[in-house]
UniProtKB/TrEMBL annotation:
<keyword id="KW-0479">Metal-binding</keyword>
<keyword id="KW-0378">Hydrolase</keyword>
<feature type="domain" description="CMP/dCMP-type deaminase">
    <location>
        <begin position="3"/>
        <end position="132"/>
    </location>
</feature>
<dbReference type="InterPro" id="IPR050202">
    <property type="entry name" value="Cyt/Deoxycyt_deaminase"/>
</dbReference>
<dbReference type="InterPro" id="IPR002125">
    <property type="entry name" value="CMP_dCMP_dom"/>
</dbReference>
<keyword id="KW-0862">Zinc</keyword>
<dbReference type="InterPro" id="IPR006262">
    <property type="entry name" value="Cyt_deam_tetra"/>
</dbReference>
<dbReference type="InterPro" id="IPR016192">
    <property type="entry name" value="APOBEC/CMP_deaminase_Zn-bd"/>
</dbReference>
<comment type="similarity">
    <text>Belongs to the cytidine and deoxycytidylate deaminase family.</text>
</comment>
<dbReference type="GO" id="GO:0004126">
    <property type="term" value="F:cytidine deaminase activity"/>
</dbReference>
<dbReference type="InterPro" id="IPR016193">
    <property type="entry name" value="Cytidine_deaminase-like"/>
</dbReference>
<comment type="function">
    <text>This enzyme scavenges exogenous and endogenous cytidine and 2'-deoxycytidine for UMP synthesis.</text>
</comment>
<protein>
    <recommendedName>
        <fullName>Cytidine deaminase</fullName>
        <ecNumber>3.5.4.5</ecNumber>
    </recommendedName>
</protein>
<dbReference type="Pfam" id="PF00383">
    <property type="entry name" value="dCMP_cyt_deam_1"/>
</dbReference>
Amino acid sequence: MRIDADMLLKTAAEAKDRAYAPYSRFKVGAALLDAQGRVYPGCNVENAAYAPTNCAERTALFGAIASGASPKQFAAIALIGDTQEPLSPCGVCRQVMIELCPPDMPVIMGSAGGRWTKSTVAELLPDAFHPDVLKEEQP
């Protein structure tokens, strides 16, 4: 499948404009591409209690699953923020991506300044905690 980074970053930028970030005022958008070519937007949604806040990447992933997409069937994700340098996912989002996305899935990280870079899920979280650990027999 051809991955159009420019289209994903444009969709992520549009989602960023819908972010609810009254406390940090740091809006982030994401666009998740599944194996069937469907795109799921996501934006950060803050909460005054902070802990319930949800990042754009997780909003896109959870929304895709809620819409019927299957875990590990995603082709790419892009994220963008109002930053000069490409924006990287937080640690929590990296852990969620390890569980829900293929390890070699591209992660396209963009900036408001038009710069972007690409990595993979596995490269962003080396030596990750994997769900398989929970299936191992305990001593």
